[in-house]
Fold this sequence. Notes:
Structural class: alpha/beta
Distance between the termini: 36 Å
CATH architecture: 3-Layer(aba) Sandwich
Helix content: 25-40%
CATH class: Alpha Beta
Signal peptide: 1-23
Order of helices and strands: HEHEEEHEEEEEEHHEEHEHEHHHEHH
GO biological process, one term: nucleoside metabolic process
Largest sheet: 13 strands, mixed
GO cellular component, one term: endoplasmic reticulum
Mean pLDDT: 88
Pfam families: NUP
Keywords: Signal
Strand content: 15-25%
Amino acid sequence: MRCLSYWATIALQLFCHLGPATAVAVPRQKNYTGGNGGIIAPKVFIISMFEPESEAWKTSMVESGTGNLNDSKIDMPGLSMLYPQVLCTADHSVCQLTAGEGEINAAASAMALVLSDKFNLTQTYFAVGGIAGVNPKYSTLGGVALSRYVIQVTLQYELDAREKPDNFSTGYFAYGTEGPSEYPASIYGTEVFEVNDALRDAAYGFAQKAELSDSPAVAEYRAKYREAGAEYAAATELPTVVKCDTATSDVYYTGTLLSEAFEAVSQVWTNGTGEYCMSAQEDNAVLEVLVRGAIQGLVDFSRVLVIRTGSDFDRPPPNVTAYQHLLEDQNGFSTAVANLGKAGAEIVRGILQGWEQTFQTGIKPTNYIGDIFGSLGGQPDFGPGSQANGTGYAAAPVQRRAAQMRTRGYRGASVVRRRI
């Protein structure tokens, strides 16, 4: 009964906190009273995944003069047991959450943040990301990528490759389909997210000011890709900042066949627009939480950035097996975490310095933003189209949502479970 009463209390608190759905365009404000006991309204919130990433941010923030994230430590229920505090600068203009690795940890921690009564996040910019596997067609070890799309590439059927039909290019194929390279016929809603491209452009300009790290050991490993010629030319170059997209998978995959399969998935699921260059474990989970928070007016989804840096290549260079490639130290880890902090600190600096002129009011998106359902309104430029007739779920009465989705042809996860 103790467990039951605990969850009943939590449910009541959530109901009181969320209340009825409100229009996405008008975030529900929390009173910010200032002072030590007031609600905190950060201008930037960094969401890291594990300690080396968070330490890199802290180091670069201090070195760049944008603040010390150790100045204020805030205990918050619901965070990872390993990282139970939110860290903030002295004036609380920048805060950092370390979510924990993998989709479940990331979603749980992000939801605890969004529902916390300690923060007003309605004008906060979110810098989501960390280190990643890197596609040698687009970038290199230590390279920095800012994404427009994040794609949950392993949300599919899977056959062991030894048992796949001979005409299949991979053992992965989308739910509700009968082979690779088809769009999912059964949609969960987390397959693809798209963020504000105009904001990404602004962040790209800031990040390019960073003096990115490199090392002889990194240079030695990336030189192995020269033999592959023009296709992998980006892998052989110095780290730079690029604009390309992120694949999310809890499975740490490596090898040419899987990487090319997920490149194809990224293309198909974004209607040919996405360019997969980084592989990570958490981004779709965090963005799903932020979409749900935006529906309730708790956050502004147009203020989301996804930042990843290459710590290891997702496929081997010529004459190296996938297994050898996985086990070999590519020497990219320290360079990737350092460049995450360096590029990230420049983005934070740009937002803080331009707050009154630009960022307080926000950068209006010129593209669709949100999930595959069209939950925040508008028509997705990928997938089957809005499941809420373009109005978004906050504006649609609860009792009409399921009927709308059925009308649009959505069949739901139950189809997948019956087939498995």
